[in-house]
Structures are given as structure tokens and as C-alpha cells.
């Protein structure tokens, strides 16, 4: 079995491409003399800069070795002792150039003497990377990883052809085996314990093994030098040639259930020689009757298995070329040797079988005949048009502390109350480890077991549909991680980079910001796989569409680390996405297709006009505005980009960015308004939210943004975040939640927010406005994004006549289309041309009229009297409010009186003789709080 600590490191470091588990001679990129280097003896390392990443090829420069000692174990990739700093002119690290060769460099050392190792740790390996003097150019493996050299600990013999301890052959094949000793010795080969060849005084010996009959053979190399002896064994498995037969009609790749007792398994593995099925049904034995047939084109291995017990779960694997153990890439359930035990112990998945430890290794998969079909209850439900979507992005892991599909079901009432009509689940496909964002996928057809069963996921989708909420799945098809069967079929070592012959993956990613291993989307193999994944989830789980992660990466145009080049218009990428979109729409014409593209506008425009939707990242602008700065965010509107269709899913925040409220509370301006105080931060975020929803087009909320979630993202970017459901009990944060409710309700109820006939955006100045016009309803939204009071601000309306303050229902009669308003910081108004139902009576209307909270006060310290009043009005200000601003406004927001009290003057007097009868609001405010009280003028 693999070292468990090493495996866990591989599973959890989701942003790192790991070094390769390679021994020398590394295809001549790096070679050593002697071939089997010893930690206590002199080693000459030769580096060929023309191979690998070729960053130093023909550099005409000094080349330095960056080297480290690996002491944690023979499979570790951790450099424990590193003597040289990167990017420094260190003479001791400078390599010698081979005379007459442009790209060959050498370096000599005795490892046990070279490294500062006072505790005498065993040096198992050398890790190395090569560089120029400042490190701006470097040489690494062809997979862009570190080089590693394994070190012998004393006298040793090793098989160097083939590398490793296993070899598989077909009957009739011959293989020349080579064994090398670390110094001259007597070397001999024994086959099945019988001597077959020997030689004395040599450092290497060859043996031609002829595969005459099927079976398993052990070839042992033994070396003797004086009193020292070492040996290594090679297991040679000889198989009969695979039977050639066409794949039966109607069969597809993966698991085909033929009856309650029979399955047909089909594995795509081009250019592999043979494959066996091993599993519970044959006690994990490699048996002739479980050798798979091969199609005439050599592409697919397949096998029928009968005699299975109905409804019984069987764990199984494919054993390819007698050495590679993988699960079925199309299976809907996996068995993991490292993480399933935690799921079992926590009772997270009823009846989950333990991994068959001791019988096999690496990830396996399940099959089960006669499964009971899931009974869908909610087949007919309304799917919003793309421009009507209000999407709630949700991570099952962090949405509820139970971290299950069922926990999300239990909170669907909350989402329904909020008003969203779509849930976007962050990736739920089987990923590496148990706790993850899900962007490290390993199996693309299997829901992750940590969250529950596949039927739990179906139940979640079905229950959401029953509430009129569609479900969009965050799909990761830019890359896969090392446990993926298609990676492991053609890769370096157990979990290393894909090799050049991998049908699906690039050896080195073609673009920046890639994680895992990069799919080659121009490959027919990848194209077919992607189409099958998409169709499967839309059909089997009845999801309503996809948000495709890192969609800009679906290209074979090599941009390297050049982000600007990667973002430019790419015609090949456009064609790839049109193909994917067309295939989705062929079988599922109502499916949503949303891309995380974030590329040049001309490319996004072409694809948006074709029908695809796009994430629109406005986080930077909204975070700046959340701090009190001013930004023009017109790019949140598809029309500002010149798009024909309203297919822009602009958002304030997503899982990838810091929270807007976090920005307000931690970095907000403190003068003249202190945004870092919660009530003022909520005011600011209400303002942002009203304008965000005022821009036509689909919307997205990242979970908990609706009540001002404020945990920092990058203190532990991928780590578990607390839920903070208790925030809903906070009156301040609840104001923000209620505003979200109201804006979502407006958007869902009126076409002017989704398909306006005219849009006028004035978003550059501190006083911003949005005017939307439609034959059914016009709206005018305006607000103060500045931090000071704005007096006599002219606001334009589309027409004269009666307008209605949405949050109060009060009328504003216009004889002129331009009206002056006075606005406090973060104050906004929303007027409609028709009278609409006002928010529920349980909501304080002032919360929306002014966007500023009512601070609790004692009647003895703050009062407005007499009430009602006929002439004089008196106001008692509370202690602590000095140099207070005040105003009297009517219920449309128009200011009747205004000014500032003198220091020490706690009682204000007003003459209301010239004010007409009606209901008014007296308002007093300073930098800390705002106080309101209604009064009646008779």
C-alpha cells in the first residue's frame, strides 16, 4: 500500500501540481553516474536543458542547480534540507557546462557530505530544479514538476529495464530485462528460484524473458560483492492474448445492466494490451475467465458477468496491463481506501461497505443490479427564463453544519421564503478527500458520498422543484485530479502527470490558473466524455442546467502563464463551446448553460448571443463601494457590453471573492460616516443590493450574502467556514435580509426588471440612478453613494403625474419630470409608476424609506410633541447627540425643513404654520445613529 501520509498530502493540496515519482535515467533529461547512485558515494548529475520544460534551452547563460535532500521516506516529495536560496548567484550551486555541448550541464556531490545533516537523517532521494542566476528561467520535467533521484543506502542491485517490480506480457512476447548493481559484482538471475544466467565482475546483466505460457513468474536479480549481497524481484505476469470481439449493440461505456443477475462492463483504454475485472464477485483474483475481450480497433475492453445476486452491491476494479488498478470512470458510486472509514464511523452513509483493504489498493467502484428506481414526485414545474433567474450559490459543506443533502432539504423553506428561484450547487461530483469545495474531481458520474446517497441528492432536487426552485450544477470539466481513472490509465507513477499518449489529458496545462490535470477539449475522446457527463446529469438527476467552472480553459491554444493572451478571443474555444452547447440543447432544450469565462468581451458576446449565459464578476467594484468609495458598475448590465440577450449573471460576490460586508466592517471609511459600525455597514449594503437588483438580468447570491456574512475568505481559503445562521436574529442584519426579499419579489413579479423596453443608467457620479421603462410599469431608483449629505439633487423621471414610493405607498405628484431631493449617505428611493402592494406590515417602513436603522430610544430622552400638532412642534434630543443634523420630510422623502442644532441645544422648536396637514417624519442624525419619529400636522 502507498504511504498514507503521502496520499493525504496528494488528496488535500488542491492547488499544487506534484513532483513526479520517477527514478533515473529520466528519459535523458537528467542522468546520473553511476546509474544506481549511493548516498555515501560520489554522484555526477547530468542535465539536458533541451528536454523537459526547456526553459533553459540555448539560454547562453550560467545554469544553477536548486537541490534538496528528501529524508521523510523513499516516496516522499518533500525537500527536507535545502542548502541554496532561489535566484541567487551562489558559486557552490553553479553547474559545469559540458565542452562542445550547448545544453548539457553537470554537477557532482556526495549526498551524505554535501548536506548539513547533523542529526544523521537518511537521505532517500534528491529533489532538484534547474535555473538561471535570478530564477527567471527554469528547467523542470516535461510535466513541469521537480526531478527526483532515488539513492541506494549501501550496496544495491536494481532492475532498470523495466523500472519497478511488475511486468506484464502476452504469450509470444519477449522482453530483455536488465539489472544493474551499484558497483562491480557477481550478478545472477533466478527464474522461479532456478538459476538462469550469471556473470562475475560486472555492473549490469541482461536476460531475455520469453513469454511462452500464461502464468505468473518471479524473476530475481541477486548481486554479491565481497560480504555484501542484495536482491530485487520482478513479478512477470503472462497472459493469453485478449479475445477480439465487437462490443454488443446497445452497449455503452461503463456499467451496462442486462438483467437482475448480469452486467456488461466496457472500458475505453486505447493501446492497452489487456484488462481484467477484479472484485467481490471473484474474491479479487486475477482469473482467466475475467479477462476482458477487446474490440477489433483495440479501443475498448468489455466483459459480461453473470450469476450476480440481485440488489447486492459489489465493489470492483479494472486491472489494466496487469499493473494499473482503476475504478470504472462511469460508475455512480466509489469506494475509497483513505476516506470511506470516516464516513462509516460518522454514520453519514447508511450501509456503506468498507474498502476491501488487503485485497486491492487505489480507488474502486460499485455495481448493483436490480436497483429500485427513484420515484420522482415533481416532474412538472416552472422553469424561469434565463433573465428571470435569481440564483442562490450554495456549498453543501458549509450551508449547514450537518453537511448533507438532507440538511439542505431541511432549509429549502428558508430559500423559498427568501424568494430565490434557482439553487446553484457547488460541485457535488466525487472529489478527492471528504471536505472540499469540489473543484478537485476524480469521478464525474458519482455524487460525493460524504454528503449522502445518490437518492438523497435526487430527493433534494425533487423537493426544490416542488417549491418552484430549479437546480443548477456547478460542473468541473476543465480538469481532473490524480485519482481519476482516465488520468491513471496513462500517467507517471501512481498519481503523477498524464503521459503524452493520454487520450483525454494534456501532459502540461495549456493555460494559467489550472489545477489538477488539464483536459484536451480538442480530443474526440474528451469531447465524447464531456457530452456523456452533461447528458447524464441532466437525464438521471433531472438537474436544470450547469455553471461550467473555468470555461476559459477549454482550449488547446497554449497561453502558458500569459493571462492576457489567455483572455483574448479564441476561435477554437468558441467552436468547442458551441459544440458543447448544441449537444446539451439537442436533448435538453430548456437547460441553462452558464460559463465562468471572464474573457474578452468579443468572445463572450458571440457566445452570449448564441444563447449561453456568463458569470459577470462585479466583486471588485462592489467591495470598493462597500468601503465608501465610488465606482461606475454599468458593466453589470449586458446592454453596456453590447450583448443582444440578457445573459449576464452579474454578481456582487461568489465563492471565489471576499465578502462585501467583510469589506465594509473591516476597511470601510470612518468619516464623515463610520461604515465600520454595523448599522452603517448594513445601510451601505442595502444601497448596493437595491442597485444590484435594479439592473436588469439574471442575479446570483452567494450563500449568506443576504444577511451580510462577514467571515474572511482568504484566512483559510478552502477551509470550512462557520454558518452564522444566528445573524438572522440580529435586527440590523435582518433589515438587509428583508430588503433582499423585497427586491427579489419585485424582480420576479414585474417584467420591467427582466425585459425593460428602455434602460437608463446613471452610475458614474456619487448620486446614481436607474430608470427602467416598460408598458406595464416604470421604475425610478436613485441613491446617494457619497458619504456626505446631498442637498437639492435633481432626479429625472420618465413622465409627470403620480408616482409611488414603493416602500410606503405614498404618492408623489409631479408637474415636472425633474425633482430635487435631499439624500443622506446610503439613502435610496424606489418609485413606481403604478401603485404596488407595499412590503408586509411587519416590516418597518422607515427601514426602506431611509435605508437607516431606528436606534432604540427612551421617550424621556427623545420625543416629538405635541403630536398631533397644529402650530408649534418641539423636539427633545437625547443626551449625547450634539451638533445634530435634523430634517422634517413627508412620506415621499421630500424635505420640508432642515438644518443643524447648536451645541448644547437639546430642545428644538419649529413653526408648522405654513405646512399643510398630513403625516410627516422628524429625523435627527449624527455620525453614529439616526432617530425617527412620525407626527401628524392637523
From TrEMBL:
Glycosyl hydrolase family 13 catalytic domain spans which residues? 393-747
Q: What is this protein called?
A: Por secretion system C-terminal sorting domain-containing protein
Q: Which family does it belong to?
A: Belongs to the glycosyl hydrolase 13 family.
Instruction: Write down the superkingdom of origin.
Output: Bacteria
A Gene Ontology biological process in which this protein takes part is: carbohydrate metabolic process
Kindly list any coiled-coil regions of this protein: none
Amino acid at each position: 500500500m502507498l504511504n498514507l501520509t503521502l496520499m493525504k498530502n496528494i488528496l488535500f493540496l488542491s492547488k499544487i501540481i506534484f513532483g513526479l515519482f520517477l527514478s533515473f535515467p529520466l528519459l535523458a533529461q537528467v542522468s546520473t553516474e553511476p546509474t544506481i547512485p549511493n548516498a555515501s558515494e560520489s554522484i555526477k548529475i547530468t542535465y539536458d536543458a533541451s528536454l523537459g520544460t526547456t526553459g533553459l534551452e540555448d539560454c547562453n547563460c550560467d545554469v544553477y542547480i536548486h537541490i534538496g535532500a528528501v529524508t521523510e521516506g523513499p516516496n516522499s516529495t518533500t525537500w527536507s534540507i535545502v542548502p541554496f536560496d532561489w535566484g541567487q548567484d551562489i558559486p557552490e550551486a553553479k553547474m559545469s557546462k559540458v565542452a562542445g555541448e550547448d545544453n548539457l550541464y553537470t554537477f557532482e556531490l556526495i549526498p551524505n557530505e554535501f548536506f548539513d545533516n547533523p542529526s544523521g537523517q537518511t537521505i532517500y532521494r534528491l529533489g532538484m530544479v534547474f535555473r538561471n542566476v535570478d530564477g527567471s528561467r527554469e528547467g523542470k520535467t516535461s510535466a513541469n514538476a521537480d526531478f527526483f533521484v532515488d539513492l541506494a543506502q549501501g550496496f544495491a542491485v536494481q532492475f532498470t529495464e523495466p523500472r519497478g517490480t511488475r511486468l506484464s506480457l502476452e504469450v509470444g512476447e519477449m522482453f530483455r530485462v536488465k539489472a544493474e548493481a551499484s558497483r562491480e559484482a557477481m550478478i545472477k538471475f533466478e527464474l522461479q528460484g532456478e538459476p538462469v544466467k550469471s556473470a562475475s565482475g560486472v555492473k549490469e546483466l541482461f536476460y531475455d524473458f520469453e513469454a511462452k505460457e500464461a502464468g505468473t513468474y518471479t524473476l530475481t536479480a541477486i548481486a554479491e560483492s565481497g560480504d555484501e549481497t542484495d536482491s530485487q524481484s520482478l513479478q512477470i505476469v503472462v497472459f493469453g492474448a485478449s479475445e477480439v470481439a465487437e462490443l454488443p449493440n446497445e452497449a455503452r461505456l461503463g456499467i451496462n445492466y442486462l438483467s437482475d443477475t448480469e452486467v456488461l462492463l466496457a472500458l475505453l483504454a486505447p493501446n492497452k494490451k489487456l484488462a481484467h475485472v477484479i472484485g467481490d464477485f471473484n474474491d479479487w483474483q486475477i482469473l482467466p475467465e475475467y479477462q476482458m475481450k477487446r474490440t477489433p480497433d483495440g479501443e475498448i475492453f468489455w466483459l459480461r458477468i453473470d450469476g450476480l445476486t440481485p440488489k447486492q452491491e459489489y465493489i470492483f476494479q479494472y486491472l489494466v496491463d496487469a499493473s494499473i488498478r482503476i475504478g470504472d470512470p462511469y460508475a455512480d458510486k466509489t469506494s475509497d481506501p483513505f476516506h470511506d472509514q470516516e464516513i462509516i464511523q460518522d454514520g453519514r452513509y447508511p450501509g456503506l461497505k468498507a474498502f476491501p483493504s488487503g485485497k486491492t489498493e487505489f480507488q474502486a467502484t460499485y455495481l448493483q443490479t436490480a436497483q429500485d428506481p427513484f420515484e420522482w414526485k415533481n416532474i412538472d414545474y416552472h422553469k424561469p427564463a434565463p433573465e428571470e433567474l435569481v440564483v442562490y450559490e450554495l456549498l453543501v459543506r458549509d450551508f449547514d453544519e450537518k453537511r448533507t443533502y438532507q440538511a439542505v432539504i431541511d432549509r429549502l423553506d428558508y430559500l423559498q421564503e427568501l424568494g430565490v428561484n434557482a439553487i446553484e450547487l457547488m460541485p457535488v461530483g466525487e472529489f478527492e478527500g471528504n471536505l472540499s469545495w469540489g473543484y478537485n474531481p476524480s469521478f464525474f458520474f458519482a455524487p460525493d458520498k460524504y454528503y449522502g446517497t445518490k437518492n438523497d441528492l435526487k430527493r433534494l432536487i425533487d423537493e426544490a422543484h416542488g417549491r418552484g426552485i430549479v437546480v443548477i450544477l456547478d460542473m468541473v470539466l476543465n480538469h481532473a485530479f490524480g485519482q481519476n481513472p482516465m488520468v491513471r490509465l496513462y500517467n507517471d507513477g501512481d498519481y503523477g502527470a498524464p503521459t503524452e499518449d493520454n487520450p483525454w489529458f494534456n501532459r502540461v496545462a495549456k493555460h494559467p490558473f489550472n489545477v489538477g490535470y488539464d483536459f484536451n477539449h480538442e480530443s474526440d475522446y474528451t469531447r465524447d466524455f464531456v457530452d456523456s457527463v452533461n447528458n447524464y446529469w441532466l437525464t438521471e438527476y433531472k438537474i436544470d442546467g450547469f455553471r461550467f467552472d473555468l470555461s476559459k480553459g477549454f482550449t488547446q491554444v497554449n497561453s502558458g502563464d500569459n493571462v492576457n493572451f489567455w483572455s483574448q478571443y479564441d476561435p477554437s474555444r468558441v467552436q468547442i463551446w458551441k459544440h458543447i452547447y448544441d449537444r446539451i440543447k439537442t436533448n435538453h432544450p430548456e437547460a441553462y448553460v452558464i460559463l465562468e469565462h471572464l474573457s474578452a468581451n468579443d468572445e463572450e458576446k458571440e457566445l452570449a448571443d448564441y444563447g449561453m449565459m456568463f458569470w459577470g464578476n462585479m466583486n471588485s467594484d462592489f467591495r470598493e463601494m462597500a468601503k465608501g468609495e465610488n465606482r461606475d458598475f454599468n458593466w453589470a448590465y449586458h446592454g453596456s457590453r453590447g450583448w443582444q440577450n440578457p445573459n449576464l449573471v452579474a454578481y456582487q460576490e461568489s465563492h471565489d471573492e471576499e465578502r462585501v460586508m467583510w469589506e465594509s466592517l473591516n476597511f470601510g471609511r470612518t468619516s464623515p460616516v463610520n461604515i465600520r459600525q454595523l448599522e452603517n455597514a448594513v445601510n451601505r449594503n442595502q444601497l448596493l443590493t437595491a442597485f444590484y437588483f435594479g439592473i436588469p438580468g439574471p442575479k446570483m447570491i452567494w450563500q449568506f450574502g443576504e444577511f451580510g456574512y462577514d467571515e474572511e475568505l482568504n484566512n483559510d481559503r478552502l477551509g470550512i467556514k462557520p454558518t452564522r445562521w444566528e445573524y438572522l436574529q440580529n435586527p440590523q442584519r435582518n433589515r438587509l435580509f428583508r430588503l433582499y426579499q423585497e427586491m427579489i419579489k419585485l424582480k420576479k413579479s414585474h417584467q420591467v426588471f427582466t425585459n425593460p423596453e428602455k434602460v437608463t443608467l446613471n452610475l458614474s457620479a456619487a448620486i446614481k440612478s436607474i430608470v427602467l421603462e416598460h408598458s406595464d410599469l416604470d421604475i425610478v431608483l436613485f441613491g446617494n453613494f457619497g458619504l456626505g449629505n446631498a442637498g437639492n439633487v435633481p432626479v429625472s423621471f420618465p413622465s409627470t403625474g403620480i408616482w409611488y414610493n414603493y416602500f410606503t405607498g405614498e404618492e408623489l405628484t409631479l408637474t415636472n419630470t425633474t425633482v430635487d431631493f435631499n439624500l443622506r449617505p446610503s439613502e435610496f428611493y424606489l418609485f413606481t409608476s403604478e401603485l404596488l402592494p407595499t412590503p408586509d406590515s411587519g416590516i418597518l417602513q422607515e427601514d426602506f424609506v431611509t435605508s437607516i436603522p431606528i436606534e432604540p430610544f427612551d421617550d424621556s430622552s427623545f420625543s416629538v410633541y405635541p403630536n398631533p400638532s397644529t402650530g408649534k412642534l418641539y423636539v427633545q434630543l437625547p443626551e449625547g447627540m450634539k451638533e445634530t443634523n435634523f430634517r422634517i420630510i413627508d412620506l415621499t422623502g421630500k424635505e420640508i425643513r432642515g438644518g443643524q442644532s447648536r451645541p448644547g441645544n437639546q430642545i428644538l422648536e419649529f413653526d408648522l404654520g405654513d405646512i399643510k396637514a398630513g403625516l410627516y417624519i422628524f429625523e435627527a442624525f449624527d455620525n453614529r445613529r439616526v432617530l425617527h419619529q412620525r407626527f401628524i400636522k392637523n
